[in-house]
# Entry
Amino acid sequence: MPAVAWGLEILRATVATVLLFTFLAVVAAMFGVLAERKISGWIQSRLGPKHVGPQGLLQTVADTVKLLQKEHVTPVNADPVAFNVAPLIVPVAALLAWIVIPLGVPFGVLLIGRDLNIGLLFFVAMTSLIVIGVLLGGWASNNKYSLLGALRSASQMISYEIPLALALLTPIMLAGTLSTVEIVDAQRGGFLGVGRWFLFGGGHGLGGLVVGVLAFAIFVAAATAETFRTPFDLPEAESELVAGYFSEYTGMRFALFQLGEYGELFAMAALSSLLFLGGWHGPGFTSTLWLFVKLFAMVFFLMWVRWTYPRLRLDQLLNFTWKGLLPLALLNVLLTGWVLV
Amino acid sequence: MVLVDWLHVAVFAVVGTLMAALPLAVVWLLAPRAPHPQKRLTYESGVVPFGQAWAQFNVRYYLFALAFVLFEVEVIYLFPWAVVFRRLGRFAFVEAALFIVILGLGLLYAWRTGALEWT
# Structure
């Protein structure tokens, strides 16, 4: 390929990166945090933020501006290099996971960072990089709460990653590809436009329905744990560990951890819509609108769960995945194979 | 083209890191700097921190990490199988079923020997 073409590709990728990062910062972080505060307020019969802008809509914008003016404090006991690198790893890993998530095909233009041929494997690999940032940040802080929070996070993330990856195998087997775009296109049409959704087994009868629903349930449970949300929020259990692994982080570095966390939450919501709920295909018409409806419905569901359920104990948490989700996920892979043969 | 795909991923990694570092640069320009030794103490619920956090911690975390490495590697083996599964048919299913049963036996072994207990 000539040098000009390479330059053009680099330019295109740079523009895509800036757009995707802005999307994550505005939609996932700013809107996500606002939605979380509003929804938690609504669930707990409070009003939530209401003073900045109409109905408090600009609260998180004001918070961001405020955080930009806050001093960075590095504890004297911390490891300075690791302490400063960790808050960059988490949001960048979330951004890299977003590369393979398509946001629909408005006016014939596919909105995606890059449709990689190993899409879902890449997604799993990138989300597991987050654990490195978390562990590094918690260890470098040299704070007991941070270290305990980081160790809990790491053991939780790695434990739930296995059922998560196994649940992904069902849509992969149904569609026969790892590309997220092709998986979505395999769910087009069917009864009422929803009949071929992989939640219902992609048109493989009753057996398909069973494996589809099971894979979706395992995926959502594991995704809740991966994003550290109640009932799996031990790493940040504020009543025992202050703020978990980012207790020592101030100002914008704290905000970067939040960006990574909400970026991952939205990535999991998007992925569950794409892999199981037909992506941008739906009843009546095919549109990006459908994807966003499903995405926000999933985000709302995860927030609803977070503000409704109590927290598990660490041994219950690990038992739930190693003795519950993991055998179930292995069984589901076998069942999927059996249905498709 | 596959190489172009990875060029895009590399650009995402580099430019994404710069984008994430941008607010830190803004903070460096805007934020006040008023150092004080007490401010830089490790937070320990208001008391003077007792010793370092870099001490011993529960060895159980290590056992779970070890189990994770085993299972994650085996899950990665299932990914290529899942992609071509429908083209290979019954034989591939029996092969993977054997693999998953052996995996399940491994899990059962870890379970029975108490590697998955947190006490």
About this structure: Chain A is about 65% helix and 0% strand. Residues 42 and 340 of chain A are 44 Å apart (CA to CA).
